[in-house]
Amino acid sequence: MYISNKNIEIRYAETDQMGVVYHANYVIWLELGRTQLIKDLGFSVTDIEEAGFVSPVMNVNISYKASMRYGEPAIVRTWVKSQDRLRTVYAYEILHEDGVVAAVATTEHILVKKDSFRPVSFKKVDEAWYNKYIEIAETN
Q1: Is a pLDDT exceeding 70 seen at residue 71?
Q2: Judging by DSSP bridges, how do beta strands 4-9 and 73-83 pair with one another?
Q3: Which long-range contacts (CB under 8 A, 24 or more apart) does 41-45 make?
Q4: What family is this protein classified in (predicted)?
Q5: Which of 36, 40, 42, 56 could form a disulfide with 6 if both were Cys (CB 3.0 to 4.6 A apart)?
Q6: Residue 61's domain spans which residues?
Q7: Catalytic site residues?
Q8: Number of C-beta neighbours around residue 107 at 10 A
Q9: CA angle 120, 105, 133 (to 5 degrees)
Q10: What are the CA-CA distances from residue 50 to residues 56, 125, 126 (Å)?
Q11: Strand partners, 73
Q12: Residue (of 63, 53, 66, 70) closest to 19 by Cα position
């Protein structure tokens, strides 16, 4: 299993009046982590989009464990939990600098044609990328 790390500097605009990170901002951090994982593996979301495909989120699940505050660094750990013909499930841990888990999450994505939103097989669109995900997935 391959795990990618993305460091996040918590900005004041991401917090509420109590200085605690507003819950919806974690979803943005998940996307930063997913994009970093893809980049670390040598692939590009832009390339897929230029070929006429997009990868919408079908499901997001976040469990909040410990609050994070303005000025603290956060680490987003991202990996491929599972990959099948159509669905990719990414898993995440968002950590405090000292390793305390602030949140755990998963996102589920499919690949669709940009113009029709019809699902397509990931393997048919980019076999190398698909095979890499199969190789590194937590569960096969």
Answers
A1: yes
A2: antiparallel
A3: 41/2, 41/4, 41/129, 41/132, 41/136, 43/126, 43/129, 43/132
A4: Belongs to the 4-hydroxybenzoyl-CoA thioesterase family.
A5: 36
A6: 4-136
A7: 16
A8: 22
A9: 40
A10: 15, 12, 13
A11: 9
A12: 70
- Domain with 101 in it: what CATH number? 3.10.129.10
> 0.90 cut: is pTM over it?
yes
- Written as six digits, the tokens of 125 are 């669109």
Quick one: which of 121, 123, 34, 48 has its CA closest to 81? 34
Residue with the two structure tokens 């900005």: 11
Question: How many residues are recorded in the chain?
Answer: 140
Neighbours of 52 (CB within 10 A): 13
pLDDT tens digits, one per residue of 94-108 = 999 999 999 999 999
Residues 6+ apart with CB under 8 A from 19: 69, 70
Phi, psi dihedrals of residue 132, rounded to the nearest 5°: -65, -40
